[in-house]
UniProtKB/TrEMBL annotation:
InterPro entries per UniProt: CenT-Element_Derived (IPR050863), DDE_SF_endonuclease_dom (IPR004875), Homeodomain-like_sf (IPR009057), HTH_CenpB_DNA-bd_dom (IPR006600), HTH_Psq (IPR007889), RNaseH_sf (IPR036397)
Subcellular location: Nucleus
Protein name as it appears in the record: HTH CENPB-type domain-containing protein
GO cellular component: nucleus
Organism of origin: Mytilus edulis (Blue mussel)
Domain named HTH CENPB-type: residues: 51-127
Residue ranges flagged as DNA-binding region: 26-46
Swiss-Prot/TrEMBL keywords: DNA-binding, Nucleus
Length: 423
C-alpha cells in the first residue's frame, strides 16, 4: 500500500517555487517544507506536466474560492471579466501572498491553467463577443433592460437610497481629438463650398466626469496622450481638477484607481452608503478598487454592455451638449483671432468654461431622470427603443449563435456576496 501524503499542497507549491527561483536547492527545499525530495524533483523536472490534474493549482483553496467569488460578483454586477483580466487578478493574488510561484509574473498563468480552473467550476463559462452594432441591438432588449432595472431597484432599496439622490453617482469619460465637427450651420454663398478653420489642435484628450442625481458635479479628471503639457495648463481651471496621462490618452486601470482615490472618495460627500454606476469597460475595475470601495462603503453597479446610450445619464444628456459647446467656443475664438489655436495647454480652460455652461443643476438632474436612474423608473425607457424580449431567441439560427448568451446582468436574489471572500 502506498504511503499516504504527509504534506500540504501549499507546502509543495512553496517548495517548487523556491527551487524554480533558485532560492533553495531541492534537498534544502525538501527539508524546509517537509516535502519528499523526489516529489519536488518530479514536479520541477516536469514529470506531471501531461497529467490531467497537472501540477499544483498554485492557489490555495481559500484563494481560489475568493477568486471565483470575485468572478461571480463582477459578472452579477455587470463587469464580466475577460481571460486576460482573470490572469492579472491571479498575479495580484500571488503578489499579495508574497510567496514564490511557478507562474510567469509578467504574463500570468497559462491558458491551460485557466482551462483547468474553469473545469473545476462548471458554473462559469466564457462567451464569445459579437460585433458592436449587433451586440447593441441584442443588449438593448427588453429582457436585459428589465434585469438591469430590477438590480437597480433592489440595490437602491437595500441601501436605503430611495430619497437620497446626493448619494447616487454616474461616472464616465469622453474623448476630444480636435476632429469633432460642429453641428451649427454657417452662412455662405449659394453654390460654393463652406469651410471652417479648425482651432482645436489634433491629439487626444479624455475627460472623466462624475455627476450626482441631486445635480452636483464632481471635479473633472483630464487625461492627456503621451504626457502632460509642458507649459502651464491649470490657469482658469478649478484647483481641484485632476490630471494624468497615458500613451493613448485613454483611461486605464491605474488612472481610474487614481481618480477613485483622489476625486471620488474625497468629493462624493461624507454620507454613506454611496452607489456608483458606470459602464463595464475593463479599465474601470480591479481588485484594489473593490477593496477601496468596500472600505469606504461604496457600492458599484455596472451598466449592461452596449446600453449606455439609453441608460447612462452622462451619455443621455451631458456629453453631447458638452462637445457641442466646446466646438462653439473654439469656433468663436477662431473668429475673434485668426491665429488662435487651442492645444493641450489651453484646452483645460476651454473645457472648464464649456462644463460650467452645460452641466447645470437642472440638466444633470434631467439626465438621471431621462435614463431612469433616479428616480428609478423602468417606464422611462420606452419599449419602442428596445428589441423584444425574445429577440435573442428569434435570431439564433445555428449552433454557433445558440451557444452565445449575451445577457450579462443577472438578478437572482444574490445581489451582494461577502466581501470577506474577495480580494
Amino acid at each position: 500500500m502506498p504511503q499516504k501524503k504527509q504534506y500540504l499542497q501549499e507546502s509543495l507549491d512553496k517548495a517548487i517555487g523556491a527551487v524554480n527561483s533558485n532560492k533553495l536547492s531541492i534537498s534544502k527545499a525538501a527539508t524546509e517544507y517537509g516535502v519528499p525530495r523526489t516529489t519536488i524533483s518530479d514536479h520541477v523536472n516536469g514529470k506531471y506536466d501531461n497529467h490531467l490534474n497537472g501540477p499544483s493549482k498554485m492557489l490555495t483553496d481559500e484563494e481560489e474560492t475568493s477568486l471565483i467569488n470575485y468572478v461571480k460578483y463582477m459578472a452579477e454586477r455587470g463587469f464580466p471579466l475577460t481571460r486576460r483580466m482573470l490572469k492579472a487578478f491571479v498575479i495580484s493574488i500571488i503578489e499579495k501572498s508574497g510567496r514564490s510561484t511557478l507562474f510567469n509574473m509578467e504574463k500570468g498563468p497559462s491558458n491551460k491553467w485557466v482551462n483547468k480552473l474553469l473545469n473545476r467550476h462548471p458554473e462559469l463559462s466564457e462567451k464569445l463577443p459579437e460585433q458592436q452594432d449587433k451586440a447593441r441591438r441584442r443588449m438593448s432588449n427588453v429582457t436585459v433592460v428589465d434585469q438591469y432595472f430590477k438590480l437597480l431597484v433592489d440595490t437602491v432599496d437595500s441601501l436605503g437610497l430611495t430619497n437620497k439622490p446626493n448619494q447616487i453617482f454616474n461616472c464616465d469619460e469622453s474623448g476630444f481629438s480636435g476632429k469633432e465637427k460642429s453641428k451649427e450651420k454657417v452662412l455662405t454663398l449659394k453654390g460654393s463650398h463652406s469651410y471652417q478653420q479648425k482651432v482645436l489642435v489634433h491629439g487626444h484628450i479624455t475627460v472623466h466626469m462624475c455627476i450626482a442625481a441631486d445635480g452636483h458635479v464632481l471635479p473633472s479628471f483630464l487625461i492627456f496622450d503621451g504626457c502632460l503639457p509642458h507649459r502651464s495648463f491649470k490657469d482658469g481651471v478649478p484647483d481641484n481638477w485632476l490630471y494624468g496621462s497615458s500613451e493613448s490618452g485613454y483611461m486605464d486601470t491605474e488612472l481610474f484607481e487614481n481618480w477613485f482615490d483622489k476625486v471620488f472618495i474625497p468629493f462624493c460627500g461624507t454620507r454613506r452608503p454611496v452607489l456608483l454606476i458606470f459602464d463595464n469597460h475593463d479599465s474601470h475595475i480591479s481588485i484594489d478598487l473593490i477593496e477601496k470601495a468596500k472600505a469606504n462603503n461604496i457600492h458599484i453597479i455596472g451598466l449592461p454592455p452596449h446600453t449606455t446610450h439609453l441608460l447612462q445619464p452622462l451619455d443621455v444628456a451631458i456629453f453631447g451638449p458638452l462637445k457641442e459647446k466646446v466646438n462653439q467656443l473654439s469656433v468663436t475664438l477662431g473668429n475673434l483671432n485668426k491665429c488662435a489655436t487651442i492645444g493641450k495647454a489651453k484646452f483645460p480652460a476651454l473645457l472648464s468654461t464649456a462644463i460650467d455652461q452645460t452641466t447645470t443643476l437642472a440638466r444633470v438632474k434631467e439626465s438621471f431622470r431621462k435614463s431612469g436612474m433616479y428616480p428609478v423608473d423602468r417606464s422611462i425607457i420606452p419599449n419602442s427603443q428596445l428589441a423584444p424580449a425574445d429577440f435573442n431567441k428569434s435570431e439564433k439560427t445555428n449552433k454557433e449563435t445558440t451557444d452565445v448568451d449575451t445577457t450579462t446582468i443577472t438578478s437572482n436574489g444574490k445581489l451582494f456576496i461577502s466581501f470577506d471572500l474577495l480580494y
